């Protein structure tokens, strides 16, 4: 369960209230919007004939975006992840949790 996953990572789950955007992390919401717009802009004039084909195109663009230098930091999202986030990630629980 979600509670088991939170317990495994030693964290508390504090869900945002519905329709209360101030409860959510603004930076995360904006980051998702930036990625979504960047990818959709590049796919806008393409036609896909299967979900597999669409997912492949998105996966390729996601890789390109992660490797592009950020204007503010002058390094890529991938480099930030590799140096800041990845070293402190904890392993997944040994057993899959139900949702």
From TrEMBL:
This is Integrase core domain-containing protein.
